[in-house]
Amino acid sequence: MQQAHAFYNQGNAQHDQGLLAEAEASFRQALALLPEFAEAHSNLALVLQQQGRLVEAEPAFRQAMALKPESANAHYNLGTNLKAQGQLKEAEDRFRTALELRPDFMPAMLNLDRVLQDQGRWIDAEVYWRDALRAKPDFLTGYVSLSQVLRRQQRAGEALACLRRALEIAPDSVALNFQVGSVLKDLGRFDEAEQSCRRAIDIDPTSAVGWNNLAEVFNATQRLVEAEQGFRKAIALEPELAPAHGNLGIVLQNQGRLHEAEDSMRRALALNPADATAHGNLLFVLNYHPDKTGDEVFAEYRAYDENFCVQHRAEWRSHANTKDPARVLRVGYVSPDFRSHSCANFLEPLLSRHDKRQVRIYAYAELLREDAATARYKSYVDHWVPTRGMSDAALAERIRADGIDILVDLAGHTGGNRLGVFARKPAPVSLSWMGYGCTTGLSAIDYFLTDEASAPHGSERFFAERPWRLPVGWAYRPAGAAQMGEVSALPALRNGFVTFGTLTRAVRVNHRTVRVWAELLKRVADSRLVIDSRSYQDAETQEELAQRFVAQGIARERLLIGCHSPPWDVLRGIDIGLDCFPHNSGTTLFETLYMGIPYVTLADRPSVGCLGSSILQGIGHPEWIAQTEEDYIARAAALAGDTARLAQIRAGLRPAMQASALMDEAAFTRNVEDAYRQMFNQWCGDNP
After folding, report:
1. How far apart, in whole angstroms, are the C-alpha atoms of residue 100 and residue 104?
2. According to the UniProt entry, where is the signal peptide (predicted)?
């Protein structure tokens, strides 16, 4: 026995030095001499778990628990192992037993809360914390944890009340003040959010996390200069704070400073290589980068798949879906945007037109908060499933249990995406459509729903998925049609000069677009250029862009840069729209056409560089699609040179659009449903 304890002590010392393989050997030697040595079983399991050998660790944890069933730690340790393996129900049982043995066991409390939430059992988690608070009314952790559960149920107001109660207990808590600020930001109460974050910084001016959180509030309100300063302050205080580097990258991206943005995001990823969101943000920037080839960008998508998704192939299982090609299909849509969002222009036409004799609709909603649009979405679907706070593994299991046949990603790498669910392949057929406009990079996703213009034949190498080409890639329903009003007369007729314009964000305005647009302004005498969006709210950002044109020889007075609302009023003053490249605009191009304004686009790298071409093909105006930068300038100048023709186009463009495939909701929906049916039939044939 003495020798066994000697090996055990040696293992502990080796573990403390990070010598995990040696510690494992020592614990095994101790157990060879004393098989009923519970502590040695437990520590052996911990060493195995630290090496990622979860399955091997489980029997050792179970043996330790069997030898000491009265030990809360033994039950807790097995629970953590089972939780890591995704065995959430048994993990829950172990945490509950640990708490019965030691009611104040805080790690067990927090892990029980986590497994309940990972299973989507928010009400159970809420009940647990409310019971804990009834037993202990001044339980600080209880209020904080309850607030988190409430936030995941979109009950931000109640969450805020919990945090304010926690602040009464610990008014000088920096973390609590930040959390209050975060909830206020989610509620759109930005002035109060800023005050709360500043209060936290007053308590601890050296808090890098504090400056990061304050800068997030600035970024949410498009105060980009202040946001950049805040993130840089956070980095100065804590150079290895990965989120601050990533957030700085987002601000730089939003300012159109893509080279700097890429550097910041790569730094964030280097500091935390396991951060899938950071890698996704890098992909987002690369989509817009003017100096990357399609092959370079796609290589990074492949890296994302290898780093974060391929590992989940071990969780793939055969699907038990009934292989009847003629039956009603269960279609699941996964999105964080079932709310007032630009996606509504394209998603509502489809969901509202689905033939319930063909499909049964499930909405998996990753929503922060609901609004009036959410109520409409709920009316379109058969099953509404809130997913916020549910782990990828738990959501994948829910989708399997729902028997989904076709699973549709509507987010790509945008915020709130659930690509980790798709990596687990919970449905026989999966596809990505609309919300991102580019490949996801996931080899687990079968199809990319698109059209010939967005994904020309020969471009397949830029997609991890197989492009499935529809006659048109979407149907448009203008969400603001009632407010947009009638098409106005051509501004050039009253101004005496042509006004070009775009409503694009700064991320799309790069050195290539500036150079081409400047050359166009030189080519068309006395013409003006309007650039109007939320990116240009502050004077400093406006002037920075203006000086880039001045450097190209364009007089400052020919530029109208700003941010005005509603955008339709800005469009009324524009004669010809200008699309961006290599990443085309999206919703604003539809709005431009609907207001009677033709636009010129450059067909660039698929698929985000071909969105403008797709729309123009759909409305029947391929003559406005350029193939080179010089061709772009020539086509835009030609339009500007015939104001009588421009006036005719303006008067007839909305009716033409309304009669085109772009606004034929019924036909588009039937085409999508036919595609779903063919995809499912293909799966049935491949899996007899």
Report:
1. 9
2. none
Residue 577: phi and psi, rounded to 5, are: -85, 150
Write down the residue that tokens 């986590």 correspond to.
114
Q: What residue ranges in 276-391 does DSSP mark as E strands?
A: 329-335, 359-365, 383-386
Q: 286-312 burial, b if ≥16 CB within 10 A, otherwise e?
A: bbbbbebebeebbebbeebbeebbeeb
468: left (phi over 0), alpha (psi -120 to 50) or beta: beta
User: Do 337 and 435 touch, CB atoms closer than 8 A?
Assistant: yes
Domain co-membership, 407 together with 502: no
Contact 14, 26 (CB under 8 A): yes
- Which two three-digit tokens encode residue 161? 């009340």
Give tens-digit pLDDT for 271-297.
999 999 999 999 999 999 999 999 999
DSSP state of 445: -
b/e sequence 333-349, b meaning 16+ C-beta within 10 Å:
bbbbbbbebebbbbbbb
User: Please, are residues 542 and 618 in contact by the beta-carbon 8 Å criterion?
Assistant: no
H/E segment holding residue 560:
strand 559-562
Per-residue burial over 181-196, b = 16 or more CB atoms within 10 Å of its CB, e = otherwise: bbbbbbbebbebbbbb
The residue type at 249: G
Q: Are residues 583 and 443 in the same domain?
A: no
User: What's the confidence (pLDDT) of residue 199?
Assistant: 96
Average pLDDT of the chain, as a whole number: 95
Could you give the C-alpha distances from 607 to 141, 298, 470, 614, 618, in angstroms and in order? 48, 11, 14, 10, 15
Domain count, the chain: 2
Closest by alpha carbon to 367, among 340, 404, 395? Answer: 340
At 220-264, the pLDDT tens digits run 998 999 999 999 999 999 999 999 999 999 999 999 999 999 999
Phi and psi torsions of 588, nearest 5°: -65, -25
> Are 494 and 452 found together in one domain?
no
365 in Cβ contact with 440 (< 8 Å) = no
Which residues, 6 or more positions from 100, have their beta carbon under 8 angstroms from its beta carbon?
none
Say yes or no to pLDDT of 1 above 90.
Answer: no
- CATH number, domain containing residue 550: 3.40.50.2000
Give every strand in the sheet of 329-335, ordered side by side: 383-386, 359-365, 329-335, 406-409, 429-432, 447-451, 466-470
- The position carrying tokens 């996964």 is 334
Domain span at 406: 316-470
pLDDT of 334-382, one tens digit each?
999 999 999 999 999 999 999 999 999 999 999 988 899 999 999 999 9
- Within 10 Å of residue 134's Cβ, how many Cβ atoms? 10
Residue 617 has pLDDT above 90, yes or no: yes
Judge if 442 and 535 occupy the same domain: no
